[in-house]
Amino acid sequence: MRRGGSSNAFSRSSHRADEHDDEEALRWAALERLPTRDRARTAVLDHFPGRDDGVRAVDVGRLAPGERAALLRRVASVADDHGRFLARFKERVDRVGIELPTIEVRYENLCVEAEAYVGSRGLPTILHTYANVLEGMANSLHITPNRKQKISVLHNVSGTIKPHRMTLLLGPPGAGKTTLLLALAGTLPSSLEMSGKITYNGHTMDEFVPRRSAAYVSQNDLHIGELTVRETVNFSAKCQGSGHRFDLLMELSRREKEANIKPDPEIDVYLKAAATGEQKAEVVTNHILKILGLDMCADTIVGNNMLRGISGGQKKRVTTAEMLVTPGRALFMDEISTGLDSSTTFQIVNSIRQTIHILGGTAVISLLQPAPETYELFDDIILLSDGQVVYNGPREHVLGFFESVGFKCPERKGVADFLQEISGNVL
Ligand SMILES: Nc1ncnc2c1ncn2[C@@H]1O[C@H](COP(=O)(O)OP(=O)(O)OP(=O)(O)O)[C@@H](O)[C@H]1O
Ligand SMILES: [Mg+2]
């Protein structure tokens, strides 16, 4: 009897599962018949609360509050395993033959100079401030000679940063790492004079808006102390226009219909939720917070000197998160590991590496004393010393190169430490 009972229960549950599958198949079939534009905005949600059949098709562009919460719950689990999520997304894009755009950054004969008052004149006293303003006006009218001294920060550096590869920027303090990253990201302050050429896929900086294609993560953490971590990242996402590109989704949807391919439902619902509607910044924010391990402190205030908030290491990660939510595909990150332990640094750099390798992004990351396992994650190395590039090339050849010019890495010394040490002595 017990056996009979259990087989009955099994057949009842399998019957319900069949019904659920039928229902989902019907929804998909109905979705197929919609025009491409509507199809790219309609997601099928299963386990929808308050419905017997559990399946429902919703327009992600116009969600009711209950639907929005259900959608966010549904996509929360999709991006749990970042590497797997990226691989599934890439598989979907590859299956219909869409090539994701990549960026190759070249810099040629790049010189950066600063003009500054040196010696006691450089002190910001009240007298000097007024004198500097008056002298500045007199200089512009060519009445008095310019007493500012020119300081050369980068001397005639050239190189290439390739997509699909991670580049590590190393150099002692004051070598010009921040200046090089700012110049490459197109955000050099106007007080610095730049000459030379920087191109993205052959286009010079004045042919496009660099801030849409490149993201510079600052070395300093500047935040509004009263906002929570989630609010800070969400604000950044909304200001900079985050989310997946809707036109990519439309093209995917159109090609999949032509080839009669049913997409992976989990990836499908994530992409739709991240491409349209009010919730798109929230979806991307949640994903980035999870990658950077900030989901535990997402609702804590950031804080400042007067207001106790998140820890220093978490603040550093918030600075990184603010830029990772942007649509920029060329990442320039300045000392993102300061104040972080080596295993957290490894995890963050590894997640960025997965994104760069799978989706074909471009990244230059400067790190201070990376641990050997973090160093191994990089493909290329740029070594700067006193404003000059000492080495720019693959990681595998760096030791051979320095050995050929007489610098041998001692046994049991980390390669990154060795490079940092000799870059101070080479010139
Ligand atoms: N606006 C400026 N005026 C005067 N000197 C400047 C200016 N900007 C940069 N410099 C000088 O250029 C050099 C390189 O500065 P940069 O900030 O790029 O170094 P860095 O490699 O990033 O150092 P760190 O590892 O300490 O961050 C420094 O000697 C700095 O004093
Ligand atoms: Mg710096």
TrEMBL record:
Keywords: ATP-binding, Membrane, Nucleotide-binding, Transmembrane, Transmembrane helix, Transport. It is found in: Membrane. It is a multi-pass membrane protein. Pfam families: ABC2_membrane_7 (PF19055), ABC_tran (PF00005), ABC_trans_N (PF14510). Residues 1-12 have a biased composition (Polar residues). SMART domains: AAA (SM00382). Residues 138-411 form the ABC transporter domain. PROSITE patterns: ABC_TRANSPORTER_2. Residues 1-21 are annotated as: Disordered. It comes from the Eukaryota. One of its GO terms (cellular component) is membrane. Gene3D superfamilies: P-loop containing nucleotide triphosphate hydrolases. One of its GO terms (molecular function) is ATP binding. The keyword Ribosomal protein does not apply. May be a general defense protein. PANTHER family: ABC TRANSPORTER G FAMILY MEMBER 39-LIKE, PLEIOTROPIC DRUG RESISTANCE PROTEIN 1-LIKE ISOFORM X1. This is ABC transporter domain-containing protein.
